[in-house]
Design brief:
Layout lengths: L24 E2 L4 E2 L15 E4 L3 E6 L3 E6 L1 H21 L3 H10 L1
Antiparallel strand pairs: 1-2, 3-4, 4-5
Helix pairs in contact: 1-2
C-alpha cells in the first residue's frame, strides 16, 4: 500500500513542518501519523525510553543515559512460557494435566 502524504492531499498545520512527521502506523481502522513538535512551554525535559527484551534504556538531556537490566525478568517470562506450553501439550492427552492447567489458568 502506498500513502501519498504530499502537501496537495495532506495539509499540515502551519506550526508543523514536513520534517517533523514520523513513520505512519497503520491499524485496521485508522492510519496514525506521529507529529513531532517543539515544546513552547518551559517544562522539564522528558526522558526518551526504549524497551527491549533484555533492557530498558532511557535518555535524559539532564542526566544522560539510564539502563535497567531486565534479563532476569525475561528469563522468568521465558521459563514460565515454556512450562505452560509443555502443560498445554500434555493437557490434550491427560486428565491430570487438564486439572493442573485449569488450576493455574
Amino acid at each position: 500500500m502506498y500513502l501519498d502524504l504530499s502537501a496537495r492531499y495532506f495539509k499540515l498545520p502551519s506550526e508543523v513542518s514536513s520534517s517533523a512527521l514520523g513513520e505512519p502506523v497503520i491499524t485496521l481502522e485508522k492510519v496514525h501519523l506521529p507529529v513531532h513538535y517543539e515544546d513552547t512551554q518551559n517544562s522539564k525535559p522528558a526522558v526518551a525510553w526504549d524497551f527491549n527484551l533484555l533492557s530498558l534504556n532511557g535518555y535524559s538531556p539532564e542526566t544522560g543515559w539510564v539502563r535497567i537490566d531486565t534479563k532476569k525478568l525475561a528469563s522468568v517470562h521465558i521459563s514460565s512460557f515454556e512450562k505452560r506450553r509443555s502443560v498445554q501439550r500434555k493437557a490434550s492427552k491427560s486428565k491430570k494435566a487438564k486439572k493442573i492447567l485449569a488450576k493455574y489458568s
